[in-house]
Amino acid sequence: xxxxxxxxxxxxxxxxxxxxxxxxxxxxxxxxxxxxxxxxxxxxxxxxxxxxxxxxxxxxxxxxxxxxxxxxxxxxxxxxxxxxxxxxxxxxxxxxxxxxxxxxxxxxxxxxxxxxxxxxxxxxxxxxxxxxxxxxxxxxxxxxxxxxxxxxxxxxxxxxxxxxxxxxxxxxxxxxxxxxxxxxxxxxxxxxxxxxxxxxxxxxxxxxxxxxxxxxxxxxxxxxxxxxxxxxxxxxxxxxxxxxxxxxxxxxxxxxxxxxxxxxxxxxxxxxxxxxxxxxxxxxxxxxxxxxxxxxxxxxxxxxxxxxxxxxxxxxxxxxxxxxxxxxxxxxxxxxxxxxxxxxxxxxxxxxxxxxxxxxxxxxxxxxxxxxxxxxxxxxxxxxxxxxxxxxxxxxxxxxxxxxxxxxxxxxxxxxxxxxxxxxxxxxxxxxxxxxxxxxxxxxxxxxxxxxxxxxxxxxxxxxxxxxxxxxxxxxxxxxxxxxxxxxxxxxxxxxxxxxxxxxxxxxxxxxxxxxxxxxxxxxxxxxxxxxxxxxxxxxxxxxxxxxxxxxxxxxxxxxxxxxxxxxxxxxxxxxxxxxxxxxxxxxxxxxxxxxxxxxxxxxxxxxxxxxxxxxxxxxxxxxxxxxxxxxxxxxxxxxxxxxxxxxxxxxxxxxxxxxxxxxxxxxxxxxxxxxxxxxxxxxxxxxxxxxxxxxxxxxxxxxxxxxxxxxxxxxxxxxxxxxxxxxxxxxxxxxxxxxxxxxxxxxxxxxxxxxxxxxxxxxxxxxxxxxxxxxxxxxxxxxxxxxxxxxxxxxxxxxxxxxxxxxxxxxxxxxxxxxxxxxxxxxxxxxxxxxxxxxxxxxxxxxxxxxxxxxxxxxxxxxxxxxxxxxxxxxxxxxxxxxxxxxxxxxxxxxxxxxxxxxxxxxxxxxxxxxxxxxxxxxxxxxxxxxxxxxxxxxxxxxxxxxxxxxxxxxxxxxxxxxxxxxxxxxxxxxxxxxxxxxxxxxxxxxxxxxxxxxxxxx
Length: 1004
Fold this sequence. Notes:
By secondary structure, the protein is an alpha+beta fold. The chain has 6 domains: 1-27, no CATH class; 31-194, Jelly Rolls (Sandwich), CATH 2.60.120.430; 200-371, Jelly Rolls, CATH 2.60.120; 376-528, Ribonuclease Inhibitor (Leucine-rich repeat, LRR (right-handed beta-alpha superhelix), Alpha-Beta Horseshoe); 589-707, Phosphorylase Kinase, domain 1 (2-Layer Sandwich), CATH 3.30.200.20; 715-923, Transferase(Phosphotransferase), domain 1.
């Protein structure tokens, strides 16, 4: 037999015909059925649907086989495995091939199965750039079988559908994913480009409670038609075995029609019946538009004079259905768009005068109509990033870079056509070369590619006119430094250290060091200054006898260079000694502080006996005493005091505000520590470190000028009698992250690395916009160049009680993990709003905030330690992340603590979790509101539609995809459904309550 198909609709009719002829032997063309986490393909023996592994659809995630104890009652093989996705990235996406400008049903299945213990799995689901739903599963909800179903239309020109899981601070997971092509005219009343449908309910009305759900192959699109819940059992069921065609002219030709098996049963009555459907408030917050399909077909044997005609009324908006007109086979379809309210919609069906038979209802569908996210990233940026990802091994990142949430390693502005503004790929273990296409990201302000394995040369970046930060240090980049970098007038930080760059530094670039450019080029052995002749390494020529002819030449050259260095060194020493002996001393001035007189002679550090000191501090401006006195108005306004001495407010002649720190007579910090702080801060520049602007130095008395931080210290915003305004939970998260970044920089990007040694809330200062910066390097210590932070530096113990690392305090071994411990105490201060020593406790053993918080956390009593000022304002996942991180940082043994890289990563995840919760409130109010996190109880909450745990596929008995009715008693073999959260997905409820008054009496 030859089948010819003509035109678009002809093709679909052919497919339907082929399905009818051979529906039991093969699945429909275009079906994609993914068994997530499986290692082999299989064919379902009942439906002949072919299930494949997800290996070719996604590049991230980890396979898991579920426990047999959970899955014994589930015959569906595809549910017995899952793939889970760690929260270390913002999204994990399946790419499903899909024809352009076509309609599809997308169905996702979730069964936790206890694959993770004691973990709340909170994540969102997106299709394309639209967040369609959110899940929040408590760890005790392991046997809940959840299904989400959506009907979408692909964009013109698109060849795929992107289905993504977006972790909200915890791992996401997925058991099965299905894609089903629909006919072009199906749901065309509502599915447009710019809209999608979310499935709420689909009933095979009139089916008995023992009947299975009807799916493929009866429904060629594999929609599931469920037996209605038991609350409908008082309706009269009618059935017929008569063939009811599913195609005809008139209203019955609409493509949404159910299969014949569904049309062969119906609710029917001689007079009337009614019910109410009520979507929940959180669904109504997203949309008030709903798509209702009702299907009517004759199931009774009518006589020649019989007429079945009835009215269909939705909230008194009435239509008439006359089935006799279409007898014997066609059926009537009613598919209105409805605006539902919190009161629900009343569905009423009533016989009309002169009719002999009353209403029937064979099938019912209900969907919410949602808007598709229309924002997208600039096409130029998308194209540039595609090349960028391919060359640096980032191809697993798919979909729009900025929507629905950005890739973990970039940020975007949030305009309709978004632009990529920062890329942060530090420590991503990248290989490959820097793509030239990065220059097409013309809105880029910050680019971090440091600490990777990148090779090749630096491309032309002259189009990045907004670039302020370029970090390429610690790679294997070779070649010359491009002259074009000097044309980037906005560039403030250019870090190229520890690469294989060669040739001279461009003069125009080098000269900008005196005009605000922080240029780092050390540890590039073949790089030289702009006026130097760079060393050329010539190849060694080997003689026939195996010896090198260059040996004597090189030896002589080296000897000559050494001799020259010695001679020049002696001349410089004599000249400097003579110059120093002739330098006149500056006058001594007396400054009064209370009862203490402090005498200062302010000179440049360059006047010290050590020439190396002058080199070390050349980047900080030297100030005279007169300039300091003028700036501080003779030390009029004291704004603080510390171990170093008093701190005064000042303003320089150019208007720059400064904090002026004076050394006091009783300070333990002497000249060495002063030079230590000056030398470190003169070369250390980071947006999260307080900048040293200048200094004065005289024997035993020293003055430092820092940038002024108008919002004071973190401590002043958390507690104490001098407490400033209380900072919000989100502000605290940002402060923690920014302070951690500053400390991470000291630990990893300084050579030699720097240990702060006195991290505390008083040493974290805040700008007018609450940007956190780490301060006070007066007692900081550099680590040995080969120290990784774990070997330790033996030193006298210095620091602040309550913040001291126990290992440092007891053994005198200072490591980077000592700073991590102190930072963990700061995190506890942020969470608790309490000082590190709790003076209210009588028992001396309980003085420490760390021990008190640890005891409460071990008792699972997090709420008791949270600052009352922020209770009810935080996302529970983010708070747990921060609390767990704090406790990891204050582990008694340094080897068990994270390093600052890991701390920063964990804080980024906590911030993203908080952002996602807030963002989901905007895009999808189904996400729990900020502060609404809680332990979910299976007895008090519901969740979406559950398929039956056997092949009878009973309808949903609770949850968002169907009315919340009592469970259907016929499924006694299935485990009780337990649901995770009322804030996820949508539910539809039936009114009135469960007593017999919910249905109007039938007039007789």
